[in-house]
Design brief:
The complex is a heterodimer.
Chain A lengths: L8 H18 L3 E6 L2 E7 L8 E5 L2 E7 L1 H21 L7 H18 L6 E7 L8 E5 L5 E4 L2 E4 L3 H11 L6 H16 L8 E7 L7 E4 L1 H6 L1
Antiparallel strand pairs in A: 1-2, 1-8, 2-9, 3-4, 4-5, 5-6, 6-7, 9-10
Helix pairs in contact in A: 4-5
Chain B lengths: L19 H7 L23 E6 L2 E6 L3 E3 L2 E4 L5 E5 L2 E7 L1 H22 L5 H13 L2 H4 L5 E9 L4 E7 L5 E4 L2 E4 L3 H11 L6 H18 L15 E6 L2 E4 L2 H15 L1
Antiparallel strand pairs in B: 1-2, 1-10, 2-11, 3-4, 5-6, 6-7, 7-8, 8-9, 11-12
Helix pairs in contact in B: 5-6, 6-7
Chain lengths: 224, 264
């Protein structure tokens, strides 16, 4: 009779976490910060077609780092969750909080029960009518959900980016200024300068009407 | 049964990105009106005139506001012209309740596709999809619950406005200049046939649309003319390179007063 090796749960979780963290650290990062009219998301992403940032619903945006196929699956599941809910009830019933909970539930399940954890970090941003009701959630590979105040980052350079942004953040800054912080934070973390075409950036902006999500062009990034 | 969409993510559904209707079906949420095989015909609110035609900058779409159930006026201020997405509009005729639900599903479907794929469906793709949705309603049409939409939009590739009419079996017909449907549709069409010309300005197009609706309301009891007393005016929208825009009510009101004035 085969006796399975005993692996203590602490060890199992540690191994899985290390595996996921290594995968995420290899990829590029995304920073999010609040500005006067909403939330700005900036990713280092030279591909113009494979997006890391996307629209989920009227006022909700998604950002994912790590393994493309995995955060893309999460993005699609998020859009389905939101559209189903909005169609079954009303558009105003779709909230970032419920979506973030669904994500943390799903990632937590995958982390403990699947053969391999997802090597992803994701953020969900929702712009409200006022800066006070604007929300930013961060969900890690193991399903840990945190509500962030005004700046956050995911990916390998999470800590360096967050530290830089916290230092420079001031409430109520215009979009151009926020773009400036994001660019400076990435340049400081990577010790190099970036071309405008190397960015993928988008906003959820309360002045844009029902669908608040908008991608920023390379020109806008260069001007900022 | 309403599945719990508040917790847990809908992974299970069709991969890769299927249509929103397929997703609804997999959750048992697809809108259905199951009828007995020899069901009697209901007096569901219906009756309409909606029309669309090309003008200099794109397309214009307009509709009256009345819903009737038999001889009864069910609603005086029903909206029959809706945005499908940023670059297209859809108008309904037939059984109001079913048509409005169909439009809501169509709007969600287009947005769902756009978000998943990162690009919009082509105008023809949208028109074809709407045709399939109308076709799926065919069994109900035999019970007298008809839905016949009109669809128009600005074709980004072709750089011009295009319009489509439908029939009850889901036939989709691209129209070159103008079209109208609903119980008052033939009268509106007759008016458009006489007055349509190439390169109408937006103001001229607005006046023509309101004139045609007034002409239809004169002949068809199920079409409501502008109600100057209550301040109920037709819905008029334009779609151009600027996208979908509703014509402000005060401009429609002015056009309606001119159209009604000419009747006297």
């Amino acid at each position: 009779m085969n006796v399975p090796f005993y692996v203590p749960p602490e060890q199992l979780m540690k191994d899985r976490a290390e595996y996921a963290r290594k995968g995420i650290a290899r990829g590029k990062s995304i920073a999010a910060m609040e500005y006067a009219d909403g939330m700005l998301l900036v990713a280092e992403n030279p591909s113009g077609t494979l997006h890391k940032i996307g629209e989920i619903y009227d006022r909700i945006a998604f950002a994912g780092v790590g393994k493309y196929s995995e955060f893309e699956t999460l993005r699609v599941a998020g859009i389905r969750h939101a559209d189903l809910k909005g169609y079954s009830y009303a558009r105003s019933d779709v909230t970032a909080k419920s979506l973030a909970n669904a994500y943390c539930h799903a990632l937590g399940q995958i982390f403990t029960q699947e053969v391999k954890p997802y090597e992803v970090g994701i953020m969900v941003a929702e712009v409200g009518d006022t800066p006070e009701t604007t929300l930013l959630f961060k969900i890690t590979y193991d399903g840990t959900l945190t509500a962030e105040d005004d700046v956050a980052a995911i990916g390998g350079q999470e800590e360096a980016l967050t530290a830089h942004l916290r230092e420079h953040y001031r409430p109520g800054a215009p979009l151009a200024e926020a773009i400036g912080w994001a660019v400076a934070a990435f340049e400081a973390a990577n010790s190099r300068t970036f071309q405008a075409t190397e960015w993928e950036a988008a906003v959820v902006d309360r002045t844009l009407g029902r669908r608040a999500f908008r991608r920023l062009s390379a020109q806008e990034m260069a001007r900022g | 049964m309403i599945p719990d969409t508040t917790s847990g993510l809908p992974w299970d559904a069709v991969v890769p990105a299927g249509s929103f209707t397929a997703l609804l079906r997999s959750h048992g949420l697809e809108p259905r009106w199951s009828l007995p095989s020899e069901g009697s015909v209901l007096d569901a609110p219906e009756g309409t005139t909606v029309l669309a035609f090309r003008y200099a900058d794109g397309v214009l779409m307009a509709g009256d506001r009345r819903a009737t159930a038999g001889n009864v006026i069910a609603h005086r201020s029903l909206q029959k012209v809706f945005p499908a997405d940023n670059l297209s509009a859809v108008a309904i005729s037939g059984t109001a309740g079913i048509a409005i639900e169909l439009i809501r599903l169509f709007q969600t479907e287009l947005e769902h596709y756009e978000k998943l794929e990162g690009s919009r469906l082509s105008l023809e793709g949208k028109a074809n999809h709407l045709a399939a949705m109308v076709r799926a309603q065919l069994p109900m049409a035999f019970q007298g619950l008809l839905v016949v939409p009109l669809f128009c939009g600005f074709d980004e590739k072709a750089g011009r406005g295009r319009l489509y009419s439908y029939d009850v079996v889901g036939g989709r017909y691209e129209e070159t200049d103008y079209t109208a449907t609903g119980s008052g549709g033939p009268y509106a069409k007759a008016h458009l046939r006489g007055a349509f010309r190439e390169g109408l300005s937006e103001d001229e197009a607005l006046q023509l649309a309101v004139d045609a609706l007034v002409a239809a309301a004169e002949e068809d009891s199920a079409t409501g003319g502008p109600d100057l007393q209550r301040g109920i005016y037709p819905n008029v929208v334009v779609i151009s390179t600027q996208g979908y825009q509703e014509v402000p009510e005060d401009r429609v009101a002015a056009a309606a007063r001119r159209a009604m004035g000419e009747l006297r």
